[in-house]
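Quick one, probably user error.
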């Protein structure tokens, strides 16, 4: 019997997202890496009003945004390009490279 060689698994990379939103009471990281699910990646706020969330993401190109107290917000720290979405606004683009 011939053996099928398993496809090598892409190693996930740790990506830390952050957003300064001092007066926010809730910030959620949402993107196509988590199915735009608001329950998957709630962020935590530190004493200085910086919200952070570290996630493991496989290599690839992803779109994401922050949901701040029920309102969409683009990532002001993202140095990569944005792309338009079907709602007439923009999503941030993240390229996770394989190591």
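Nope, works fine. Designed sequence:
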């Amino acid at each position: 019997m011939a053996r099928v060689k398993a496809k090598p698994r892409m190693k996930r990379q740790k990506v830390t997202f952050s957003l300064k939103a001092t007066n926010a009471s809730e910030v959620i990281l949402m993107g196509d890496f988590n199915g735009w699910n608001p329950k998957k990646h709630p962020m935590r706020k530190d004493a200085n009003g910086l919200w952070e969330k570290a996630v493991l993401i496989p290599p690839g190109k992803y779109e994401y945004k922050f949901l701040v107290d029920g309102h969409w917000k683009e990532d002001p720290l993202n140095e990569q390009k944005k792309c338009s979405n079907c709602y007439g606004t923009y999503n941030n683009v993240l390229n996770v490279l394989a190591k």
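The beta strands are 13-20, 27-31, 44-45, 50-57, 60-68, 71-73, 82-84, 90-96.
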